[in-house]
């Protein structure tokens, strides 16, 4: 038997990755040594220390790093988590924010300014509701040492005010004290990067910015975009020595996703939060809404690289061909 290539891999634990994590599905000729991690910590460890041979990776941070020079990572078009990320925005009821336009001039928290979910949120605010990032005062929770931006040279874009929240407090505490009016994204998961722990969703002093069901329906019907925040990467040195690894790993993840679909007795679209989209949107998603590949997701991927650039996080627009393995571009 041919000796297998042994690679370390880091993944978040969800239905699309579980068969890879527990070894039920493995890439041909590769033995994976998995670690389950929260994405916040995973991306920081990869960007700063390059600990794993294969991992999920922030699409925005990878794009930013690639804009400077070729990185030590080659991306694979496997997108295991997707959402309408702008629906995560929460506001203080006492701040009297009734619509996205009311965020102008307000103090808004975000775990990290350059994280993909935050970029999607700001992109939607700008393009759909006319609220530019310059019109909001931003407060960022992560420190320079434990942030993705600390590893990719983050500097606040010209004309945008980004304050760092002191390490002695966090977004949740500032929201409770009334020192923030809203948060674009709120993370309370235990990991080495994020500090907030208070459950704001269960507190009547806070509410979602959007009517989530109505806005998901409106946004998807208009744009056709189901937002991507993570891709997969493999260490470039491994890919260059063994170019076959890209498609072997891709095929394993595609098989894991296919197994998830086969295991369901009902619609492919059950993974959507109940009530978030209506039947007309479900019908529009004629194929698996979590579909992998560059071709099937080009519009979504080019939109996020556009937002990264226009929000001042890269000096130029990064092409998808710079990010993904050449053998995956036609998938």
Q: Short description, anyone?
A:
This protein has 331 residues and is of the alpha/beta class. The chain has 12 helices and 13 strands. The protein starts with a strand and ends in an 8-residue tail after the last helix.
Provide the descriptors you would attach to this structure in a database record:
33% helix, D-Maltodextrin-Binding Protein, domain 2, 2 domains, 331 residues, 12 helices, alpha/beta, 5-stranded mixed beta sheet
Topology:
Blueprint: E1 5-11, H1 18-21, E2 30-36, H2 39-49, E3 54-58, H3 59-68, E4 73-76, E5 82-83, E6 90-92, E7 107-110, H4 116-129, E8 137-140, H5 148-152, E9 161-164, H6 171-177, E10 182-183, E11 206-208, H7 212-223, E12 227-228, E13 230-235, H8 236-241, H9 245-262, H10 279-284, H11 298-310, H12 320-323
Parallel strand pairs: 1-2, 1-3, 7-8, 7-10, 8-9
Antiparallel strand pairs: 3-13, 4-13, 5-12, 6-10, 6-11
């Amino acid at each position: 038997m041919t000796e297998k290539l042994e690679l370390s891999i880091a993944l978040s634990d969800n239905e699309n990755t579980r068969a890879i994590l527990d070894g039920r599905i493995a890439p041909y000729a590769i033995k994976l040594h998995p670690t389950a991690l929260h994405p916040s910590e995973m991306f920081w460890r990869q960007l700063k220390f390059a600990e794993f041979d294969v991992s999920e990776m922030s699409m925005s941070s990878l794009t930013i790093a690639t804009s400077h020079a070729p990185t030590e990572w080659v991306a694979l078009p496997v997108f295991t988590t997707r959402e309408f990320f702008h629906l995560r925005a929460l506001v203080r009821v006492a701040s009297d924010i009734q619509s996205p336009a009311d965020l102008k001039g307000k103090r808004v928290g975000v775990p990290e300014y350059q994280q993909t979910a935050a970029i999607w949120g700001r992109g939607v605010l700008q393009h759909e509701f006319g609220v530019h990032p310059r019109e909001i005062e931003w407060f960022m929770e992560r420190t320079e040492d434990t942030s993705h931006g600390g590893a990719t040279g983050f500097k606040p874009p010209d004309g945008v005010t980004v304050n760092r929240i002191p390490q002695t407090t966090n977004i949740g505490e500032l929201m409770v004290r009334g020192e923030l009016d809203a948060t674009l994204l709120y993370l309370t998961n235990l990991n080495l990067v994020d500090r907030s722990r208070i459950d704001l969703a269960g507190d009547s002093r806070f509410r979602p910015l959007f009517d989530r069901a109505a806005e998901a329906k409106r946004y998807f019907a208009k744009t056709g975009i189901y937002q991507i925040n993570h891709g997969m990467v493999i260490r470039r040195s491994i890919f260059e020595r063994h170019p076959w690894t890209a498609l072997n790993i891709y095929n394993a993840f595609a098989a894991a996703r296919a197994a998830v679909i086969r295991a369901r007795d009902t619609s492919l679209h059950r993974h959507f939060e109940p009530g978030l989209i209506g039947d007309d949107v479900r019908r529009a998603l004629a194929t698996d809404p979590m579909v992998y590949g560059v071709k099937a997701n080009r519009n979504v991927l080019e939109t996020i690289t556009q937002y990264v650039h226009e929000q001042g996080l890269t000096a130029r627009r990064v092409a998808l061909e710079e990010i993904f393995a050449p053998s995956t571009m036609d998938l």
